[in-house]
Structures are given as structure tokens and as C-alpha cells.
Amino acid sequence: MIGGWGGLLLNLWVVAGIATILGAVLIALVQSHLLVALARFNAAAKQHFLWAIAASPMLIGTFAVLLTMTPSLSHELGLSADHCHFHGDGHDHLCWNHPPIFEWLGWKGFCALGFAAFIVWNYAREIIRRRAQQSHLDTLLLLSETADGNLYVYESDQPHAFTMGMRSPKVLISSGLVKALETRELAIVCQHEYAHRERRDPLRLWWFGLLLCVFIPAARRQLRDAMELAIEQLADAKVAASAHDSSLVARTLIKVNRLGLRYLKQSPQLMSCAFCTTAIEARIHQLLAHHQGRQFPLPGFIFSALVIFAIGLYHADLLHHLIEDLLHHH
Amino acid sequence: MVNLGDLEKLVLNYLWAHGIADAKQVHDHFKKSRGGSLNTIQSTLDRLHKKGLLAREKQGHAYQYRAATDKKAFIGALIRKVTQDFSPDNDQLLAAFVSMSADMDEAHLDRLEQLIQDSRQRRDNET
Description:
The complex is a heterodimer of chains A (330) and B (127).
Chain A: H1 4-38, H2 43-76, H3 107-142, E1 145-146, E2 151-154, E3 161-164, E4 170-174, H4 175-180, H5 183-199, H6 201-211, H7 217-243, H8 246-266, H9 280-288, H10 298-314, H11 316-328
Parallel strand pairs in A: 2-4
Antiparallel strand pairs in A: 1-2, 3-4
Helix pairs in contact in A: 1-2, 1-3, 1-7, 2-7, 2-11, 5-7, 6-7, 7-8, 7-9, 8-9
Chain B: H1 6-18, E1 20-22, H2 23-33, H3 38-50, E2 54-59, E3 62-67, H4 71-83, E4 94-96, H5 106-126
Antiparallel strand pairs in B: 1-3, 2-3
Helix pairs in contact in B: 1-3, 2-3
């Protein structure tokens, strides 16, 4: 058993964990509709929304903790009477004036340890993964040729180009792809990858993956695909703007895909190697479209967040009692 | 895919470029740029041999080393490792220009190419 601040924090940790899981389930239920609605927006706006969706479960968890503590907070600030006086004598409290006892033996202890293990496991796995990939990148760079440190050409017939690395992303392209492309096409591929490098997209994907760890696998995959598509579309749009010819970018995209497909057909042992399942059709349609979609509605977004916050605060007492009952009567 | 140290990568790359060499030749090549002793090079070559990346043949008192794997095959395996086999749920930490998908075929690409041509033609007609 733990009392005092330790007991309070552990109880709040359980509240945050449960609210985060409920938030992830809720979003997974509606995310297909959300992703369909995102089609109306441009790639940059899609990215903003996807970050908001991915961060929602953790924000919901944090918000639940804040609302749980709101009665104590408002009393401390002199905005309301001591909430604890409204309780009968037999009622347990969940506030810092009367910190609750936390019992390890029971469902709360199980949840607290489970949430902690889940977070540590996911973050440790991602860090190990990041280190291993950096080691592979170092090997690839050493085996590649570079003229100016911007573009690394590695020896391979497989037509492929990508940007990799967290702190200092590098652009790599296979010698097979360099040989197969004309000068203008090669410039488009390189500019596309330089756009990824400038925006540090590999690092973005890593952070995004960390946020997604609380989602169920199917929802995680769907959100990740949507983010990968938005990232690719942003890089495509940047190249199209600088090349002043979006159809040339689209044709290059088709050509590189065709080369990749032919290579895979010649090397059946590699058929399972699908580099990036980003929807090419959506990228082509975006490049050919007259209008790139709606902008991110920042004022509306902030207003909606404030409204949700205000509704939450208004019902804070109700939520506080609900959570007290849940924690102390089960 | 085996993990390689810095010197191991350099030695392997040297042997891919030069074909066959003994420890002394490898040491002569690296002593100016990296320093280090002949023993270090010998143990590096031995480690690479044990990892299956180098083949060796004894000629006189010294071993002659050569790369046991093709450079392209090694790089191909490395690329596959970083792009696909890396995590169980296939998450990637790279941004790739190539966007192969499982259901992609030539006919699909032909249709998209036709779409691009039509769009270009429409724009030309408009201007």
C-alpha cells in the first residue's frame, strides 16, 4: 500500500492509462470516417490533422487527469468551496488535500504496472530499432559513392531512392535507378528526396510511430499509411512547384514504379519486398489536380479545442465523482 | 544481416574494390589513413572470415583474403533489412520515392499514365 503523494500519483496514473485506452478505442472506431473527411484537405492540412488524431489518446488521458484534479485545483485557487466537504464520511477522496491509498494487490496495481510496462517496452523497442537502423545506414553510406555529400549512390540494380536517418538524414539512390532515368527525371527524384531531408521526414515518422503505439494494430497501420501518403504528397507538391511541371513529376513517379515492378518480376525472390505501400494513385491525382485541397482550419481547430475544454471543465465535478467511485468501489 | 564495426566495413569495402589481398597489403593501405597495427588488421580479417563475409586461402605463410559475398548482394540484403524486415508490423523510418504496392501491375500503371496524358492534353487545350 502507498499513501500520500505517491498514492495520489499512482491513482492518477491509472486514470490516465484508462482514459488513454478508451480514447484510442474511440478514435479507432471513427478514424475511417475521419480519414475519408481528410481527403478534402491539402497534404499539409492532412498532416496536421493526423498529428492531432495520433496525439488524441494521450491528450485525452492528460485531460482526464486534469479534470479529475479540477475540484482540488479550483479550491486551492479560491474559486470554489472545499469539494471534500460534500462527501459523506464513508467516501474516499481523490485530491491532494486527502491523498488516497494505492493498493498494489488488485486491479489498480495490475493496471499501473501494465501501463508502465507497455510504455517502457514500446519506447525501448523504438530506441533499439532506431540505433540498429542508424548502424545499417552507416554501413550503406560507407559502401556508397558521393560527390558532394548530398546524394549517396549505392551499387544495386534494384531501382530505389530513399531518405534515411534521424539526426542528419541522408539521401540514397541505387546505381540502377541513376542509369535508368534521364537527367530531368533524376533531378525530380533527387529533389523529392531532398524535400524529405529538409523536413526531416524520417524523424517525423519515428515520432508519429511513438504516438501510435497506444492504438490497436489495424488502426495504427491505417494512420501510418495516411501519414506516409501525406508526407509523400508534400514532397511531390514541392518538387512540382519548383519544376513548374507537375505532369513530369507524375510521369517520373510512374516510370520509377514501372522500373521497380519489372525488377521485382525478374527477381521473384524479392517479390515480398514492398518498399513503401504509399498509394501511387492518390499521389498522381494530387499532382494533376487544379486545386490542392483546403487549408488547415486553424481558428476552427483552436475554437473546437477550447469548446471541448470548457465543456470538460463545466462537468469536471461529475467526472471527478465518477472516477472516485470507479477507483474506490471496485 | 551481421553487424559490422567501422574497420570491418572499411576492410570489406577494400577487398570488394581490390579483389584479393593479404593482411600486410590491407595494413599498408590503411596505416596512413587510419593508423593501427598489423595485428589489428589480422584480427579484423579473421573476424570477417568467421562471420562468413571473407574467404581465405593459405599461400606460403600468409592467408590471401577475398570477399565471400558479392557487394550488390550484400547491399541488397542491407536495403531489404532497413526497408522491410526491420519490424514485425513493417513500420518504416524512411521516406522512399518508389511506391510499390502489392496490387500494383503494368495495366494499373498504364491507366495512370493515360490519365496524365489526358490531363496534359486538357491543359494544352485550355491554354
